[in-house]
Specification:
The protein is of the alpha/beta class and 190 residues long. The protein has a single domain, classed as 3-Layer(aba) Sandwich (Rossmann fold), CATH 3.40.50. It is 26% helix and 28% strand. The strands form two sheets. It has a seven-stranded mixed beta sheet with strand order 5-4-3-6-7-8-9, covered by helices on one side. Helix 1 packs across helix 3. The termini are far apart.
Length: 190
């Protein structure tokens, strides 16, 4: 197992999915499938989240943006990966999910991770940019340029676009995009 995969596996072990699920779904936390969290949103399939985190290659101390943080589980996993010297900002449009994810994060004692209610007129968190890493857990119709603009030089974003997982690396001459398989996600609200 390579170093990135090992770090992701350890983050999963330290961040139980069950604490980020509604009570009625907690008994299904070990299943490798998306689970409903209400408001037509899901807690993503663990194998998909792991694949995205491996592509993202988060490092300790980085500033990371989690777009569509949903239940807060991916925010918590990212917080584990950046450690206390890093910072994770989750943004979510659905107020109830912001509240439940904040409560779940409190139980893990990772104060360097926060979930904010997303501004409906803004995609991401440009006031906190540039980000070393951006994880998008909802499907965009096309590559969201507003998020590419929030990446630091050589920053990495992993985002599902039109059913395909993209890894985007920011460069002064333009983003470099690689494709990493077909996936299904809830739509990105932009």
């Amino acid at each position: 197992m390579d170093e990135v995969s090992e770090r992701v596996e350890q983050a999963f072990a330290r961040t139980p999915r069950s604490g980020f699920l509604p009570e009625r779904e907690r008994h299904r936390a070990a299943e490798d499938g998306p689970l409903a969290i209400g408001d037509d949103q899901t807690n993503s399939q663990p194998s998909t989240v792991a694949a995205m985190l491996r592509l993202l290659d988060v490092r300790p101390g980085q500033l990371v943006l989690d777009v569509g943080s949903g239940s807060g589980w991916t925010t918590a996993l990212l917080a584990d990966l950046v450690g206390p010297d890093g910072q994770v900002i989750g943004v979510e449009r659905i107020p109830r999910l912001v509240e439940t994810s904040r409560a779940a994060l409190l139980g893990l004692d990772r104060p360097w991770a926060q979930v904010h209610h997303a501004d409906p007129d803004v995609l991401g968190a440009p006031g906190h940019a540039p980000f070393a890493r951006i994880l998008v857990s909802a499907e965009a119709r096309e590559l969201p340029e507003q998020l590419v603009d929030q990446l630091a030089t050589d920053g990495v974003m992993v985002v599902p676009v039109a059913g395909e997982m993209l890894r985007v690396v920011a460069h002064p001459e333009g983003p470099r995009v690689t494709r990493h398989g077909r996936y299904r996600f809830v739509p990105l609200i932009s």
